[in-house]
Amino acid sequence: MKKLWGGRFSKQPEEWVDEFGASISFDQQLASHDIKGSLAHAKMLFQCGIIEESAYENIKKGLLSLQQQEQEGELSYSVKYEDIHLNLEKLLTDNIGPDGGKLHTARSRNDQVATDFHLYVKEETLLIMDHIEELQKSLLNLADEHVETIIPGYTHLQRAQPVSFAHHLLAYFWMLDRDKERLQDSLKRTDIMPLGAGALAGTTFDINRNITMTELGFSGKYPNSLDAVSDRDFAIECCSNASMIMMHLSRFCEELILWSSEEFGFIEISDSFTTGSSMMPQKKNPDMAELIRGKSGRVFGSLVSLLTLMKGLPLAYNKDMQEDKEPVFDTVKTVKGCLSIMTGMMNEIKINVEKMNKAVHQDFSNATELADYLAKKGIPFREAHELVGQMVLHCIQKGCYLLEISIEEYKEWCPLVEKDLYDALSPKTAVERRNSEGGTGFDAVRQQIDSAKSKMYIS
Ligand code: ARG
């Protein structure tokens, strides 16, 4: 079988070599974008007087029919035609005859594949942003219900200071918001068109790139043909942004896994997102959360593989770049899947308010309150810190908590202490009062929810 580019070849590669070089098994995902790109290119060729009207109409009819068949999953491709671009060109030519061969005028597969890939990444970026918003909404709903639910806040995974559960959830809301902003920003560099760059140097045909740009809905064009065909920054950025999302989801999952353990018991993940054990009947494993945590690895891997792929490539196109697609396809599928699962999991999560409340009453996370209390009575904070440290040690030795020490004992230890100390030491007061901007105080958290909602256009 003669290749579409077979003119200067006297020998055919063997089948297994063809197979090695082919990308059709995965780049068929770009079919709809490729057809869209070809429709725009054909229109431009006609409008610029490069192909005659009859050829354009013929090509258009053929491409629209391919589009229809593609949507219905009726197209079949062959490794013999290497990739999606040559497969579609072959199908078109089989369908409409020699006019099909005019479509590739003033175009190379190099600017063609780059255009397809830009269209794909742009479309998927917007979809990932939608997925993020769904999760943000779910977090906001939950936060709304739990402003006054208190959990221990940790540093070094040691109890530090109690915080509002809503505050904790909102921390993830803002991480996701930055993720969304990064995706939005990356669109500036994704939403630009390489088409018209030819193989690397432009073309002698009198093309008009503004026509294809408008037709394809791009906001701009590459100003340099060499850069246009060899840039994959937008794909790397997509994987980098996805990596950041996965790192955030993975941290959240780690917390869900901890919180759903017997030791914490703060939450229960719905049966729909957990599994049992084949041997231990009592088990309810947080599999989906663990899988999300695990899948962050493959997304980080894709980022590193793309960076490594590109780092040694001279300008312009090199066949190495065919390896750019699978990591991106896999990343997009993974990150969308993880965001959906996460949203489903959050929508059905059960919060064990009692367990959380019990936890904040059985620790020393109110020690800072005691030190602040003494400081407000005029004792220098450093001294107060030292004093409270000794008191905590005393409690540990005695086997009790700060709220269980009698007023007499407190007065002996420091005469400035009055009965109002007990209110200051209650976890609720400790949280409620921290109303500095961005703090965990109930009013501050309510304000935070308001600004989160207004960012999401929710009232
Ligand atoms: N399948 C190729 C890829 O994905 C298309 C571009 C091929 N260009 C070329 N000059 N061999 O990169």
From TrEMBL:
Domain Argininosuccinate lyase C-terminal: 364-432
Matching Pfam families: ASL_C2, Lyase_1
InterPro entries: Arg_succ_lyase_C (IPR029419), Argininosuccinate_lyase (IPR009049), Fumarase/histidase_N (IPR024083), Fumarate_lyase_CS (IPR020557), Fumarate_lyase_fam (IPR000362), Fumarate_lyase_N (IPR022761), L-Aspartase-like (IPR008948)
Residues in Fumarate lyase N-terminal domain copies: 7-301
Record key words, sorted: Amino-acid biosynthesis, Arginine biosynthesis, Cytoplasm, Lyase
GO molecular function: argininosuccinate lyase activity
Main location, first listed in the record: cytoplasm
EC number annotated for this UniProt entry: 4.3.2.1
Enzyme class: lyase
Reactions catalysed according to its record: 2-(N(omega)-L-arginino)succinate = fumarate + L-arginine
UniProt KW Amino-acid biosynthesis keyword: yes
Pathway: Amino-acid biosynthesis; L-arginine biosynthesis; L-arginine from L-ornithine and carbamoyl phosphate: step 3/3
Localization terms from the record: Cytoplasm
Hydrolase among keywords: no
Family: Belongs to the lyase 1 family. Argininosuccinate lyase subfamily.
Descriptive protein name: Argininosuccinate lyase
Lineage: Bacteria, Bacillati, Bacillota, Bacilli, Bacillales
Gene name of the encoded protein: argH
